[in-house]
Write a structure and sequence with these properties.
Blueprint lengths: L4 H12 L6 E3 L4 E3 H10 L3 H26 L3 H31 L12 E7 L2 E2 L9 H4 L2 E5 L6 E5 L4 E4 L9 E5 L3 E5 L5 E5 L4 E4 L12 E2 L5 E10 L2 E11 L5 E5 L8 E6 L6 E5 L3 E5 L5 E6 L11 E4 L2 E5 L9 E6 L2 E6 L4 E8 L5 E8 L8 E7 L5 E7 L7 E4 L3 E8 L2 E8 L6
Antiparallel strand pairs: 1-2, 3-30, 4-5, 5-6, 6-7, 8-9, 9-10, 10-11, 12-13, 13-14, 14-15, 16-17, 17-18, 18-19, 20-21, 21-22, 22-23, 24-25, 25-26, 26-27, 28-29, 29-30
Length: 438
């Protein structure tokens, strides 16, 4: 049976749109190519443009296939159409869910391993805990790192010098620690969600009284462990509220208020408190950092680290400057940037990777970072990398298996604690960082 060319062309064109009904089978859910195209039209990116391009190619191939079948309808061509259908489904899934994301989202990194670190000691049944410890180097200056055992519920302190692991009488808590301070001070949630403060001096954990009219209380600890600090927005009629800081002396329970002369329409988050006397560090959405004193006056900043998506997820003040990094980034390459007395610089992480953990030496001379894949495709190795801040030179790199996600923490200026998992056991290795010139 033959159709005229015009009818064949029109029919093949109409039927080619069935390519958008090809299912995409993901491990968590399934959707159609049509959904991928519509999503890409609503949110343009390199990946969405590539998806739309592949969808158009598939439609073009479908048009050619249907045109070939309709221009001379025969049972052999119908068999060819049926046989080609699963190939279309396989090709669409392979290209849209693997090949295109791999090409667009992941960059090759052939940087060789370099450098060597001296192993000082190894702590069994332990991992470096990810903790919220403010925007200064309080834990680093104290030569401390928080450890968690293999159950993820029992905490301890690792101190240098001496590579001493100190058991705490703190209650067994879940994996979430709200804030820590040097010496073993700890804010944590009970199983019921109630916020508690653990005092290493008394060895007890006491519940904290939530302030009135605060819908979501999120205090932090000052670096000296003596004070709770939180940010409030005082409600006002007909407009955004006025920002203010509230402090509470943990020993006496006395609350005080610090009025802030900041734009009411701006969004802020409290990320650090150096001591009872301040300064207090605030992150303004989306990428601005500033510090205020007890009178609410700005004493440092505001500044915006170039190339960082949102500095509140990764920022540290040092005595002579700052370090910032992409602790979270929606798209693009993650970065580490710094501005210190001895130098300023930037490190760009190849696409397809994120910064899992970062720590800075007490003197600011070295930055250590743990990097791993942020996509579920390809064979992107994790890595632990150390940079000098005076010139940005990479002084150490070791690759690790995919999705290792290593936590690390500096202890003072020359010792680095790094988590390691081997033979179904966890360890924390403490390395000495060589002095430049060694």
């Amino acid at each position: 049976m033959r159709l005229n060319r015009h009818a064949v062309f029109l029919s093949a064109l109409i039927l080619s749109f069935t390519a958008y009904l090809i299912p995409l089978l993901h491990v968590h859910a399934g959707w159609l190519i049509l959904g991928a195209v519509l999503s890409g039209l609503n949110d343009f990116s390199v990946l969405s443009i590539a998806w739309i391009g592949v969808a158009l190619v598939l439609q073009g191939l479908a048009f050619l296939l249907f045109f070939w079948v309709l221009v001379r309808v025969h049972w052999t061509r119908l068999v060819g159409l049926v046989a080609a259908t699963p190939l279309f489904v396989i090709g669409a899934n392979l290209s849209l869910l693997y090949v295109i994301p791999l090409l667009v989202l992941v960059e090759l990194d052939r940087t060789p391993e370099v450098g060597a670190l001296e192993l000082v000691c190894s702590i069994p049944d332990a991992s470096v805990a990810q903790v919220r410890s403010g925007s200064d180097l309080g834990q680093v200056r104290a030569g401390e790192a928080w450890l968690v055992d293999s159950t993820q519920r029992t905490r301890s302190l690792l101190r240098m010098p001496g590579c001493t692991r100190i058991a705490l009488d703190a209650p067994i808590v879940g994996p979430t620690i709200d804030a820590v301070a040097p010496g073993g001070h700890l804010l944590h949630r009970s199983d019921s969600g109630e916020l508690h403060h653990f005092s290493p001096e008394t060895g007890t954990s006491a519940p904290l009284t939530v302030p009135e009219d605060v819908p979501y209380w999120k205090p932090i600890l000052s670096d000296d462990g003596l004070m709770l600090v939180w940010l409030e927005r005082e409600r006002s009629q007909g407009g955004p509220g006025v920002h203010r800081l509230r402090t509470r002396d943990i020993a006496t329970g006395l609350d005080q208020t610090i009025e802030l002369d900041l734009l009411a329409r701006d969004q802020f988050e409290l990320i650090g408190a150096r001591s009872q006397r301040g300064p207090f560090t605030l992150a303004r959405f989306r990428n601005s950092i500033l510090s205020v004193d007890l009178q609410g006056e700005v004493v440092r900043g505001p500044m915006s680290p170039d190339g960082i998506y949102d500095a509140r997820w990764g920022f540290l003040w040092l005595e002579d400057g700052w370090v910032a990094w992409d602790g979270y980034r929606e798209e693009g390459r993650s970065r580490i940037v710094w501005e210190l007395l001895d130098g300023q610089g930037e490190v760009t992480i190849p696409r397809g990777r994120s910064i899992d953990s970062l720590s800075v030496a007490q003197d600011g001379s070295v930055i250590a970072a743990s990097i791993s894949s942020n996509v579920r495709i390809g064979d992107v190795q994790s890595a632990v990398v150390l940079f000098q801040t005076n010139d940005g030179a990479e002084i150490y790199r070791r690759y690790q298996p995919v999705f290792t996600r290593t936590n690390l923490a500096f202890l003072g200026a020359r010792h680095l604690a790094v988590s390691r998992f081997e033979d179904q056991q966890s360890f924390v290795d403490v390395h000495r960082i060589p002095v430049p010139g060694e």
